[in-house]
Amino acid sequence: MTAFYEPLGDNTFRSTEHTVGPWGPDSQHLGPPSALLVRSLLALGNPSSALARVTFEVLGPVPVADLTVSTSVERPGRSVELLAASLSHEGRAVLTARAWRIVDSDTTAVAGGDLPAMTPPESAAPMEIPDFWGGGYLAAVEWLSVSGGIFTPGDAQVWARPRVAVVDGFEPSPLERLFSVVDSASGVSSRVDIRKWYAINTDLTVHLHRQPVGEWVGMDARTTIGPDGVGLATSVVHDVEGPVGTTAQALFVRER
């Protein structure tokens, strides 16, 4: 199988082994289901509008199983619209998304304010994946390290490129590729050993000031952990041309 999901019709998708996350063989990494919902959101509303913000709420573990997508336009508009999507298993929602789309316009004359671009992928080094966390989602993505990484605690600059499509038989868009990997910002910048600690995000919010291009997604990521079991992971997201937006994730942190 060369994709995270196999389409079954009627907005139902079969999860493949490439979706398996770090917490067990029966639950998914949040990257693939996030990309699946964004794929459905892109089919809604005004096609000449751009995604400006997407917020995902994690309602429970996403099982490696058959999943159903539902979508709606919550607030239609000629300039701005609010979209919603939900991912369900056996009638129970496990992940929801709400997105603002803004109609395209030419703001080239006032564009600016970007941070510096990351070191390009061709200058980064392959990231080694330990045997205890091989296969599944991690193996379905190509990982390069500028600094730090998944198994080096602390801030990190990492490039990622999915090796598989989101849905079998369909070429993924740059947005689908981006959402396939940006949930990993909390993982690449983790400050804890996941064999000893849980650090699980309850949500993911992505703001975009520019639509991404190409296959590579860069994350300049950092995680902060407070004294009361709560953490915050943030990142500046890049493509090969420079920054495109930011991410934020609240973290549930507990010793195993």
TrEMBL record:
Instruction: Output the Pfam families linked to this UniProt entry.
Output: 4HBT_3 (PF13622), 4HBT_3C (PF20789)
Q: Which residues form the Acyl-CoA thioesterase-like C-terminal domain?
A: 121-253
Domain Acyl-CoA thioesterase-like N-terminal HotDog, residue spans:
21-101
What is the annotated signal peptide range for this record?
none
Q: Which Gene3D superfamilies match?
A: Acyl-CoA thioesterase, double hotdog domain
Protein name per UniProt: Thioesterase family protein
Whose protein is this, by species? Lentzea miocenica
